[in-house]
Target: 3-dehydroquinate synthase
Amino acid sequence: MPNRQTNHSGHTVHVDLKDRSYPIYIGQGLLEKAELLHRHIPGTQVLVVTNETVAPLYLERVCAALAGFDLGRVILPDGEQHKTLETTTRIYDALIDQGFNRSATLVGLGGGVVGDITGFVAATYQRGVHFIQIPTTLLALVDSAVGGKTGVNHPRGKNMIGAFHQPRCVLADTATLSTLPEREFRAGIAEIIKYGLIQDYAFFQWLERQLAQVLARDPAALMYIIEQSCRNKAYVVAADERESGQRALLNLGHTFGHAIETATGYREWLHGEAVAVGMCMAAHLSASMGWMTAKAFERTEALIQAAGLPVLPPPLSPGALRKLMAIDKKATGGRLRLVLLEGIGSAVVTEAFDDQALTATLEHFTAAAGR
Amino acid sequence: MPNRQTNHSGHTVHVDLKDRSYPIYIGQGLLEKAELLHRHIPGTQVLVVTNETVAPLYLERVCAALAGFDLGRVILPDGEQHKTLETTTRIYDALIDQGFNRSATLVGLGGGVVGDITGFVAATYQRGVHFIQIPTTLLALVDSAVGGKTGVNHPRGKNMIGAFHQPRCVLADTATLSTLPEREFRAGIAEIIKYGLIQDYAFFQWLERQLAQVLARDPAALMYIIEQSCRNKAYVVAADERESGQRALLNLGHTFGHAIETATGYREWLHGEAVAVGMCMAAHLSASMGWMTAKAFERTEALIQAAGLPVLPPPLSPGALRKLMAIDKKATGGRLRLVLLEGIGSAVVTEAFDDQALTATLEHFTAAAGR
Model:
């Protein structure tokens, strides 16, 4: 597990990637700590990218912390449906308009969509410039801002276009969660439950016991779940930066979830909501094959439901879901690869599941959703 | 310098980049040698990308060599003006249409534009798939196919969007040069002269003596200049893959040249032609500051002219050229960085040139072009 340090009235989790290592600063009010940002900006040019929802809340504060730099800003429309190659051109245009060069730094201020797009542009502008993540949603704080996956969606597949590009630091200000709408907050809980399911049984048990405090956004509980999640993610990413093996465990529920998101055009479902259903499906399939107990499936479903997350997919046919799962990038060499559970806290990446059991799981969930 | 091997009735130059090392196979009729391709394709899915000019000449032959693979093909329009983010969507669409996954291999069959676009899509489809270069123009054989630079143009700047992504091999079939139009052939000579200018005086002298054989496309002369150029490029790339220093020497003439290309909308001037003028300008500026002799400038200009390449820019004002140079990505931190010469065979990357001398050189060339 990464080291833990306290040096800015918060905690620091280190992502250990040799010359691409970086700190995740976690704490209340970090947006005001200009020196944390400054020490990770090597040049003079900084472009802050955010969206219409986040801009009125935090953009001025971040720009104030960046006073003295040659500063630009881009405000994107809000929503997963804008995470496209077309939207990236707005950022490239701004960089060129301002004459920004290879020593420029891009700051992604917002949720997962802003972070993924901004990171992709940072990975590809002049073949790579610097990048800093300032996540403002729970999901981004605990997942998408950490690990260097960047990218945009293709109309027919999520994250089909992208690059690995590590940030120079992640600034996770827990104060930004106070303005997060309830639905988005709960969507973030899905990825937190995921860490418990794939490799941290003690964390899963803690969540079962302390969910009420988490949902009440108790500051100590938030600090704990964010740090624990970042530590879990940093551990996996350090072991397998480019997802040649182990890192794929982080995709628990995602192959099912991406199919739901693609089917609904990235509009109706939040990513975390789709992943929540996907984890239920993965747990159901795992239990139906006897890889884990029915009780473990029930605990999984119960925790997800208690977090106010959906446990059933939208009305879709099993065949439609199956077809969309096949296009997911985790498919390799024709055979579908899934992340399944051998118990709570123990996930595996496998192609060796029972195909009929998968069909039965899809039928079970789509039938239940149709009722 | 990289090793040289002979094992397929041709030569092999190795690009030494640790786990990203790869061979450049150079020889007559290599397109027919299916086993050279097969040994570098790890999966079953292959997408060949080419353009309307190259397709009728070589696409069937390459597809025949790839019989047995799950094979797709994309034929792009020909020309630098199509090297855009918009064109990449045609390749992403084809990959998704065919359900291609992370183990897929993209083959770029064509000149620099096809290679750069195909490489960029390979770098970014599902965050990176395999890539093979089959260059069919002299410029691509000796320059753009080697070294892992991929990308597309922005309407206001060349190669502004891109990634470093090394191919698994480069298959340089010298037989493809027989169909190359004379103007494109000569454009390729510009990059070959460049290697002599930046670091290989003996090669420059050889070119001065043997230019007639080269222009007559004498097979032995072609084999020699291609191998010598690939060895020079492989040497520089191995020392500095991501252009943090040394590699920038390869941009001799390019900051001037890109300004010409951008000013003319990537339509009228071939890249090699613009670089040819740019090298004359760099040599003129170097000589005017006394960094090298006037005689060295004259030899440079004479060799470029003898190769049938332009030595004067299109009608543009010095100010317009200067402005377009500033946006070039080699500009760092506000100060323009140029590759200049301290003699034939000895280039330097520098910001420490005399600004008035640059202005005088731009005025000299634009005035001469206006006559």
